[in-house]
C-alpha cells in the first residue's frame, strides 16, 4: 500500500540542482547509446505533458509545409524538457512554469505563449461542489482525509498528485500550499495521468491543467474554491506555458514560434479556456 509522503520547496522555479541531476542522467544515456544521429530536416521539441495536451500537434502541419522539416515532439516533465534542451537533445523546450533566472543569465530565452488555470478535479460521484482555500490546503497537507470533513459522506478521500518533478506539482505547491508540506496517497509520473486515474477511483481528488480536461470523456468534475472555479473572474491558480530556446530564436525555431502566435493557434487555445499572450 502506498504511504503518504511529504515534500518541501521554497519556490515554483526549476532549481539548478534539478537540471544538473537530469543532465547527469542524460550524459550517462548518451555514453550508452552512442552519438545521436542529428538530421537537419527534423525540428525536435521536448514538451511538458501539460503543454502537449494543450497544443497537441496544432500547427505542426503548417510548419512542415512551410519548411519541409519534420517536427518530433517528446513528452516529459518541464524539468526534463529543459535538461534535454541544455544538453542538445532538442531544439526547443515547451514548459509549464517560468524559466529559472540562472538559465536566463546563460542565454536561454523564454517566450510566454498562454496562461492556463489549475483545476481541482474529483470523481464524478463526489457530492461536494465547493471547498474553501483552507480546506484545500488541509486536503493536500494530510489534515483532511475524509469527505465528511468537507460536508460530504463518510468516505475516505484519496489524494492523487503528479510527480514532484512536474511543473504542475511545483506550481500547485507554490500557489496553494504557501510553504505547507504536501501529503498524498498516490503519485503518478505525469500530470496528465492523474486526470485519467481520477475517473477510475471513486472519492479521489487531484489538480490538473483545466485546458487538458476539455473534451475528455465523462467521469470527473471540477470543484470550486471559495465559490469560484476555472474561467471565473478572480480565480487565483494560474500557470504560464512558455517556449524556450538556447539564444535568440532563429531558423526553424523562429518559424515555429511565429506560427504559434497566429490567430489559428490563438483561437484553438481560447477554445480550451486558455488565454493567449501577445508576442
From TrEMBL:
Residue ranges of domain PBP in the record: 35-263
Segments crossing the lipid bilayer: none
Organism: Desulfatibacillum aliphaticivorans
Annotated Gene3D superfamilies: Periplasmic binding protein-like II
Keywords: Signal
UniProt keyword Signal, yes or no: yes
KW Signal (keyword) present: yes
Descriptive protein name: ABC-type phosphate transport system periplasmic component-like protein
Pfam family, one: PBP_like_2
PANTHER family, per the entry: PERIPLASMIC PHOSPHATE BINDING COMPONENT OF PHOSPHATE ABC TRANSPORTER, PHOSPHATE-BINDING PROTEIN PSTS
Amino acid at each position: 500500500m502506498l504511504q503518504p509522503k511529504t515534500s518541501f520547496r521554497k519556490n515554483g522555479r526549476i532549481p539548478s540542482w534539478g537540471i544538473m541531476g537530469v543532465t547527469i542522467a542524460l550524459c550517462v544515456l548518451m555514453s550508452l547509446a552512442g552519438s545521436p544521429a542529428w538530421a537537419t530536416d527534423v525540428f525536435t521539441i521536448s514538451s511538458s505533458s501539460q503543454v502537449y495536451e494543450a497544443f497537441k500537434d496544432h500547427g505542426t502541419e503548417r510548419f512542415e509545409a512551410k519548411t519541409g522539416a519534420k517536427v518530433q515532439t517528446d513528452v516529459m516533465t518541464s524539468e526534463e524538457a529543459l535538461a534535454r534542451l541544455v544538453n542538445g537533445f532538442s531544439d526547443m523546450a515547451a514548459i509549464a512554469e517560468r524559466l529559472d533566472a540562472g538559465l536566463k543569465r546563460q542565454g536561454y530565452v523564454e517566450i510566454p505563449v498562454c496562461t492556463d488555470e489549475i483545476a481541482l478535479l474529483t470523481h464524478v460521484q463526489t457530492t461536494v461542489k465547493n471547498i474553501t482555500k483552507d480546506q484545500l490546503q488541509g486536503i493536500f497537507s494530510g489534515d483532511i482525509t475524509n469527505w465528511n470533513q468537507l460536508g460530504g459522506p463518510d468516505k475516505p478521500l484519496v489524494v492523487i498528485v503528479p510527480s514532484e518533478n512536474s511543473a504542475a506539482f511545483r506550481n500547485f505547491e507554490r500557489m496553494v500550499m504557501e510553504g505547507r508540506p504536501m501529503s498524498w496517497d498516490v503519485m503518478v509520473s505525469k500530470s496528465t495521468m492523474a486526470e485519467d486515474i481520477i475517473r477510475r477511483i471513486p472519492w479521489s481528488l487531484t489538480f490538473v491543467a483545466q485546458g487538458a480536461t476539455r473534451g475528455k470523456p465523462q467521469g470527473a468534475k471540477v470543484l470550486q474554491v471559495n465559490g469560484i472555479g476555472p474561467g471565473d473572474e478572480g480565480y487565483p491558480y494560474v500557470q504560464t506555458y512558455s517556449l524556450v530556446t538556447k539564444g535568440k530564436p532563429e531558423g526553424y525555431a523562429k518559424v515555429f514560434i511565429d506560427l504559434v502566435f497566429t490567430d489559428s493557434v490563438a483561437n484553438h487555445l481560447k477554445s480550451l479556456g486558455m488565454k493567449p499572450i501577445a508576442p
